[in-house]
Write a structure and sequence with these properties.
- This protein has about 775 residues and is of the alpha+beta class.
- The chain is about 25% helix and about 30% strand.
- The protein is built from 20 helices and 40 strands.
- Helix 6 runs antiparallel to helix 9 and helix 7 packs across helix 8.
- The longest helix has 18 residues.
- The N and C termini lie far apart (about 95 Å).
Amino acid sequence: MRVPLSWLKEFAPIDLPVEELVLLLGSLGTPVESVTEVGGGLDGVVVARVEEIGPIRGADKIRVVKVDAGGDEPVQVVCGAWNFEVGDLVPLATVGTVLPGDFAIARRKMKGVTSDGMLCAPDELGLPGDHSGILILPEGLAPGTDFAEAMGITADVVFELEVNPNRPDAMSVIGVARDLAASLGVPFTPPTPAVAFATGVLAPTIAVDDLAACPRFTARVLTGVTVGPSPAWLANRLALAGMRAINNVVDISNYVMLELGHPNHAYDLGALPGRGLRVRRARDGETLVTLDDVERRFTAEDLLICDAEDTPVGIAGIMGGASSEVTAATTELLLETAYFDPMTIAWTSKRLALRSEASARFEKGVDPLGIDLAVDRFCELLAAAGAVPSDAHVDVRGVVPAPALVRVRTDRVNTILGTSLDDKQIAGYLGPIGFETTMAGPGQLDVVIPTWRPDAAVEIDVIEEVGRMHGYARIEPTVPTSTLTGRLDDVQRDRRLLRSVLTGGGASEAWTTTFLAVADLERCGLDPAAAVVVANPLAVEEALLRPSLLPGLLRAIAYNASHRLSDVWLFELGNVFRVVDRSSLPDEREVLAVALAGGDASDAVAMWHLLVEGLLLEDSELVAAVAPGLHPTRSASVVVDGQAIGVAGEVDPATLDAVGIGERVAWLEIDLLALLQARRGPGQYRPISRYPSSDVDLSFEVDEATPAGQVERALREAGVAVVVEVRLLDVYRGPSVAGGRRSLTYRLRLQAPDRTLTDDEIARARQQLIDAVEASLPASLRS
């Protein structure tokens, strides 16, 4: 945004060197991108009217132009710009002029054609703007007039400011001036328009169908309008701000928008059927030719301004239509000023790829209570050109945003900023920028946030304002202190340990998608009714959140198998989502899953034992259970501290066939939080025996209902100190085993830390182990 210093000085007596002002603006959150000094080096530049444009033989990028510069004969120049036409007024630098930057104008020949001067672009005159075209001047200026005098240009400085999205108030001259005045401690004087409204004019008809998208809409009629060129001072100020003067009505509308930050739009009331407006959502496929002569097509999400007969005449908050454009024949105006929902304007602007000065402000949020000032300012400026503002005024309101009330704690301000401010100092910083404060108690202030600051809503926003006004440069830098300096917390360390154990066990970490289709769950034997449905899925066919990691990891194994990569071992840590009660939030938790292609249930058990040893779990066992998607007789529930926290086993062959996997797959899925919160034993190392070990195999016949884990626990708790390892070796069902029973074969490793075991010691240990199992379980040793 370009802001002339002279404009800022109308609201605050700013007397600061330009270099210091640049630094101050940056500290207030509006960094200065460039500084342009204007009004110097314009001696010899005059107003000229284009009379004739012709080609030059052998040149396709330049033309010969004859202009009336107020003399007896036309002046001939050669120009490479193409943005002007016959009849346009342009600045002419005559021969002998030295333009800003010490660029001297002399008589030159190009392609054999003499050029007695130069038509100037804005940047060549030291004015804001680029070199893309010649500066087009407003109508009504006499050819030959001194350019600076005709345009009311005096020495000035123009700041080009970077306005961040969180500062909508800084998109106005008054907003920038308010900040500067507050920081400098000088008076701030906003405009107070004096308007006399005439009576006897019929009020316009206004209807707002969607008060959520348009909470406030005002319309006022002005009569006796004479459309013509703007006064030089106004045209010049717009030029310094980067806008081209068009006519007094359009220019005043732009001027008010730049000055107060509130867009407005003037319609030719005589060209509005029904002498009124209607605000409504567009109908799909509806079109409008906008002021830039482009036909726009709308959807039901767009907000339109229509005439009283429901024909679109403008895109709300973005651009007006060509049908009601102000022309030289306009004598009555309908001035529309409104407050629109920011997201509604942003959505339409982005979809249409149509961004205007108005939409840029509405998207960030304008002041809904500043409409009256903007209307009065427009009426005051146009009344100076003979227009008569009438009391024919309509103001339609819905739920208009009101000033927010925020409790601010003084100690919190000082903690965040690193300052030692008191209540009075904080109030002194906030008052000049419009934040009203009252004491709510010792060390507490109630702050009313002005409606022109929609970016501020909570305490931390107000603290930021205090910091801006106090000046961040005045805050002494300190190094934050913390009890945690550069180390992982317990959960982070445990997660790394799990990854280390699993990769050490031969598995690779995978990532699978959170979104699944109904068919994905059905193929894995999971109930789609228990899955959470996404209201706005990325893909319609994948509208469910995963209740298990099984579908994703099986899909990854199937993909690898299709590329001739078998025996792939994968693990994943990820969130799953399950519906517990339709009236409450879903159950979301993080789980650890391991899929071992080519492995069976014993591999899943072995991987679980690795985790038990890695985490030093004290109380864990596997209990036979049936789990969705797993083999009905080769699956178990993982129990830790008496609580089931997951499943282990082998994927059901029917599930593997459904997903296209031709090998067995072992499966382990654990609730990660429950696993990490389980009781753990001491992390002590055990000495390694230097003496030989002996292996003993024992086969027990047990009921099908007896978990293998119970047999293993009985062996470990038999009181035989020399047992260092117990491993399930084989599971057998066959003719030699009674119906409803199975044979479990365990290999036990016996080893003493200080000697070699004798045959008698091994025999006694063997018998003690057998007795312990047969005494505690319905089990018998197979011969």
